[in-house]
Specification:
205 residues; mainly alpha; Serine Threonine Protein Phosphatase 5, Tetratricopeptide repeat; TPR-like_helical_dom_sf
Length: 205
């Protein structure tokens, strides 16, 4: 992509790639170029927010992400970035922004995971199950998704699915303790101490 390009999407992709490679100065040049292009205001604010996040400046990140979302409230990537900032600030607006991200990005596991976690914390168990299942399909290597999904199944009176979910975690990561401990705790909560002890005995030493 040439720096004098007028393709906003291509320039945004270039800037994000430069930021991932820690080429902050080069990314800044791309952002300056984008500032003169029509329809780029939301993406420019998003990139400035991303740069502020990388620099550890949460206040500036919040300001820029808020602007970006105001410019492009239907942009899933912007919603996801803004949601992350809001969650770090424990801002109650996070839930509605996460919902936009999850709707716009159905195959982004992190958007689905965030939506599932928030739904679970609000007691919306059916919604939590829906999002967490999607998150697990699209990223089966993130341990906490299994733990949260098992919890959601248990709260949704689906004990067999809860147990299966934790056994899947153990099968996928047999050397990690999380699955064994969660399954043992699940059995204990059901009053099945014998099964809990048996699972803990299977834990890798």
């Amino acid at each position: 992509v040439e720096l004098n390009s007028e393709d906003v999407d291509a320039l945004e992709t270039l800037a994000l790639g430069l930021l991932r490679a820690n080429e902050v100065e080069e990314a800044g040049r791309v952002v300056l170029r984008m500032e003169n292009l029509e329809g780029a205001a939301g993406r420019v604010s998003h990139l400035k927010g991303t740069m502020a996040l990388q620099a550890g400046n949460m206040e500036a990140a919040h300001k820029h992400m808020e602007e970006a979302f105001a410019f492009e409230p239907e942009n899933g990537d912007i919603a996801l970035s803004y949601a992350r900032v809001l969650l770090q600030r424990r801002d109650p607006k996070a839930k509605q922004v996460v919902a936009v991200a999850a709707e716009r990005l159905p195959r982004r596991w992190d958007a689905q995971y965030m939506a599932g976690r928030l739904a679970l914390s609000d007691g919306e168990v059916d919604t939590a199950v829906k999002h967490l299942r999607r998150a697990r399909v699209d990223n089966p290597d993130f341990v906490d998704t299994y733990l949260q999904l098992a919890r959601a199944y248990e709260l949704n009176s689906e004990p067999a699915k809860s147990e299966r979910c934790l056994r899947d975690l153990i099968d996928r990561f047999p050397s990690l303790p999380e699955g064994y401990l969660a399954l043992a705790e699940l059995f204990r909560s059901r009053g099945d101490t014998e099964s809990a002890v048996a699972i803990q005995n299977q834990m890798p030493k």
